[in-house]
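Re: the 432-residue chain
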Amino acid sequence: MPIAPGLAPVPKAAATFDSSEGVFLKSRSGWCGVALRRCFRSTRVATYIGLAVCFAATPVRGQTAAPAEAQRVIAPAVQITNLGWDDNVFRVGEGAEPVGDFTATVSPSILASLPWSRMQFTGAGQLDFNYFQRFAAIRSIDSDSRANVAIALGRLTPHAGGSWTNARHHRNFEIDFPVRRLDRSLDAGVDINVSAKTSIGLMMRRSRVDYTGDTVYLESDLASVLGDTSTVSGVSVRYALTPLTTVGAQFEQDHERLPNAPERNAHGVQLTSSVEFRPLALVSGEARVGVRSRTFNDRNAAPFQGMVTRVDLSYTLLGRTRLTLRSQRDLSYSYRAGERDYLQTGTEGVVTHRLGTAWDIGGNVGRFKLLYGLADRSARAERVLLYGVDVGRTMLRSRVGFQVTRQTRSSDFSAGREYEEMRISSSVTYRF
């Protein structure tokens, strides 16, 4: 069997840990009360965490108040990444004869923030020119852009924005072959400043996901089973606990519509609490904890109810070592026609240490789990382990780096889903 559509096989080129995954599955009757109770518990826990780590919002040395917001920013940059060798381009197992290739990605980008009278325009855009020496069929130009405008009207700040992503090489842990995916999103809302420290936000977002080109992957048509239109509306409350720390709570209601797979249509709610730290605090980033409930229109499909999290926090130790922790737990639609969705959980840690004023060295390790069959006690899973090292030198406005990364997957479904991939590459970043 060929390793990819339209590509002939090429001759072969030259510590895990588990954690129990609790899944809360309830009958449709009475789920709302359970969701609210769990949401309140999650909100209370996140608030306690925010209070307990307020010390992390202490300003850095010499900083006594929140920094002034940048009024005008235009920041272009150019990156060359993945310049090197990938020994398993299609992420296949040993039985499918993995093949390697020389790769490179050139990415010009721009970030802008422009004020005009009471309005503030922000935007970002990036192009990725993906090159493969042997496999010209998967060369591509990917784009990712977003824009937003906000108008300050006293206590009211209405805003609107949108994003556009047209990419072939933004692969996730489940789908290995580079299939072109088109994401479009529009959003609008208004923020209301109730007091100097408290604000209330209302929002609505509509997004669309489409797969184009050759969309068949392992006997599933991605355009049919993953082509999705999503509508989300919500309300949030934010409170500035300190100049560098904000806590909040959010409620969102979503509707998912898949025109080519109506049995996957679903609706649900999500209640989360959050704590945010500004970049100049000792700890920076955001943590969200909450509960999600999803019910499918197909009455034979069991609903989901459980905790969801998203954490991205960084801490700078002694001004030289930066520690970053990323964690997530949430639902995603699956390409498997019989599975509908899966629960993805995982944690990744990143350490970067500066050696003097020019050199830096870093490493990362992450463990992710994709849990299927949430209504079945004998649920099956796939596990992804990734790790790597990075050494770089900063010169004026540029950084040159060398990276070695490795990624493996084990599967309860079949040995054909297991793979090992190693990438040896270099990178160059220049900021104008």
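The longest helix spans residues 31-52.
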